């Protein structure tokens, strides 16, 4: 897939046609107790469009994609209780002579809706994907899957603690307000938002479709969903690819404070600054990398003194680091130019009292500073808060922020900031399951990643002792397979998906 498709798919992808649901091997195991009615449910495939204004559904119908709602228990410890639905979409296999079953994909987030991207996944997988039914599933409480919306008037992740205690206190107040809004509007379902329950939903989907095995392609936080499935249902896993993987021992928001990620972000910013300095005739940010970095720092501190007026938005020091980081997730020329344009706008606002944003910056600010993406932010935060417990001691966060700020003033306060999870109405219902198994899988990672850094992918590789790993040197893309355009990576992953045979050794590709 090209980079324009990546923008659509990205914040940083059933069974054989006509088969009725059939008994599945292992259906009488303890983990399946009480789930028989869900496993045997009839899957009612239908058109995807829901009403005349549903453009995404209409586009899916035009692409020949079918949609269905799958019933799953709200609470898997009481499967006889309340049920909810998760929405799935299917692009049927075209190479039925070599049919390999369903391949479910996930784009991370967590809780990024994926149904509308099924045609792009089909196109990107090409000949290799022809033997699979390509399945999109919106994880519970996101997209079309019993969605929640806490009525947030601002986004959350990523958000920084800013330059000083006053900025941090604003983030404390905001995070508490967001958590309180979710408690008031969705208290009945928040305890059941987690990656563990999403993995259980995946297995109900597999069973309802009558498939003995479920293949999986997961990016970013989706790698943790895949790892949870492997740990809980390894015998039912087909061909599994985990791209831009996170450390499975650090689920939820606990992974955000990774010091290595913060230092890689600073290094990536330095690389971009050197590039921008070489083209000062275009960007006018400075003729040396030091001058360009000084411009970024000046913008950051000006936003702390007085929020910058950018179009209709007020941009303070809790937002500036996120704007910069969002355009460092790959090393493309497109992202480098957009980052330069963003810094130009912010610098103009700092110098003159106001500036008009680029269209891309306007879209980003709308997602961060308005309620436009309230539902998606609500679902993503609910899953992260349900995945792992966090400290509720406000002062502990402040101490960590101050320590991180010393070596990395721009990105340290971003990674260590307090989140709504510190005020979430319920702690996680279950302890995170430690991922340690030998189920085959393929881990893919860019060596220069600034979010899911290489060490995180290596941690996933170690936790999955039956896995192999592909490392792409000379790139920092968040999302490598199908997105980067690396023939070496794509050929190796396609070979695995095509045959089910992992590479005999770990591989290193060079961009």
Automatic annotation (TrEMBL):
Cross-referenced PANTHER family: 2-SUCCINYL-6-HYDROXY-2,4-CYCLOHEXADIENE-1-CARBOXYLATE SYNTHASE (PTHR43248), TRIPEPTIDYL AMINOPEPTIDASE (PTHR43248:SF29)
Coiled coil: none
Key words, A-Z: Hydrolase, Signal
Record has Hydrolase as a keyword: yes
Name of protein: Alpha/beta hydrolase family protein
Domain Peptidase S33 tripeptidyl aminopeptidase-like C-terminal: 416-509
Superkingdom of origin organism: Bacteria
InterPro entries associated with the record: AB_hydrolase_1, AB_hydrolase_fold, Pept_S33_TAP-like_C, Serine_prot/Carboxylest_S33, TAT_signal
Annotated Pfam families: Abhydrolase_1 (PF00561), Abhydrolase_4 (PF08386)
A single MF term (Gene Ontology): hydrolase activity
Domain AB hydrolase-1, residue spans: 123-310
UniProt xrefs under Gene3D superfamilies: alpha/beta hydrolase
Signal peptide (UniProt feature, chain positions): 1-27
Keyword RNA-binding belongs to the record: no
Family stated for the protein in its record: Belongs to the peptidase S33 family.
């Amino acid at each position: 897939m090209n980079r324009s498709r990546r923008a659509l798919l990205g914040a940083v992808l059933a069974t054989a046609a006509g088969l009725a649901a059939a008994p599945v091997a292992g259906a009488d195991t303890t983990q399946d107790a009480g789930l028989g009615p869900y496993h045997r449910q009839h899957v009612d495939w239908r058109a995807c469009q829901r009403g005349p204004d549903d453009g995404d559904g209409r586009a899916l119908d035009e692409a020949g994609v079918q949609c269905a709602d799958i019933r799953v228990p709200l609470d898997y410890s009481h499967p006889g209780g309340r049920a909810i639905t998760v929405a799935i979409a299917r692009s049927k296999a075209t190479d039925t002579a070599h049919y390999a079953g369903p391949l479910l994909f996930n784009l991370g987030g967590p809780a990024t809706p994926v149904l509308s991207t099924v045609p792009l996944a089909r196109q990107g997988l090409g000949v290799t994907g022809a033997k699979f039914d390509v399945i999109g599933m919106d994880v519970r409480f996101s997209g079309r899957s019993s969605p929640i919306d806490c009525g947030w008037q601002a986004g959350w992740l990523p958000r920084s603690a800013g330059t000083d205690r006053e900025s941090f206190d604003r983030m404390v107040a905001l995070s508490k307000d967001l958590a309180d809004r979710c408690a008031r509007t969705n208290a009945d379902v928040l305890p059941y938002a987690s990656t563990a329950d999403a993995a259980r939903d995946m297995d109900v989907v597999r069973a309802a479709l009558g498939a003995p095995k479920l293949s999986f392609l997961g990016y970013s936080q989706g790698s943790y969903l895949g790892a949870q499935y492997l740990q809980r249902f390894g015998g039912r896993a087909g061909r599994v690819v985990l791209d831009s993987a996170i450390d499975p021992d650090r689920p939820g928001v606990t992974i955000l404070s990774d010091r290595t990620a913060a230092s890689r972000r600073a290094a990536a910013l330095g690389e971009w600054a050197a590039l921008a300095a070489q083209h000062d005739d275009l960007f006018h940010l400075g003729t040396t990398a030091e001058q360009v970095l000084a411009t970024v720092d000046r913008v950051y501190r000006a936003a702390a003194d007085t929020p910058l007026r950018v179009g209709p938005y007020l941009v303070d020091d809790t937002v500036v680091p996120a704007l910069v980081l969002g355009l460092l997730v790959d090393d493309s020329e497109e992202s480098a130019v957009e980052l330069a344009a963003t810094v130009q706008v912010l610098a103009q606002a700092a110098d003159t009292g106001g500036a008009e944003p680029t269209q891309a910056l306007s879209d980003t600010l709308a997602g961060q500073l308005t309620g436009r993406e309230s539902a998606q932010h609500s679902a993503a935060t609910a899953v992260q808060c349900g995945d792992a417990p966090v400290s509720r001691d406000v002062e502990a966060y402040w101490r960590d922020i101050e320590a991180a700020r010393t070596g990395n003033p721009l990105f340290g306060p971003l990674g260590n900031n307090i989140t709504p999870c510190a005020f979430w109405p319920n702690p996680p219902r279950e302890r995170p399951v430690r991922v340690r198994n030998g189920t085959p899988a393929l881990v893919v990672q860019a060596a220069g990643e600034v979010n899911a850094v290489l060490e995180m992918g290596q941690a996933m590789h170690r936790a999955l002792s039956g896995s192999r790993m592909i490392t792409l040197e000379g790139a920092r893309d968040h999302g490598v397979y199908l997105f980067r355009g690396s023939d070496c990576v794509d050929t190796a992953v396609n070979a695995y998906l095509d045959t089910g045979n992992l590479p005999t050794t770990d591989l290193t590709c060079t961009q």
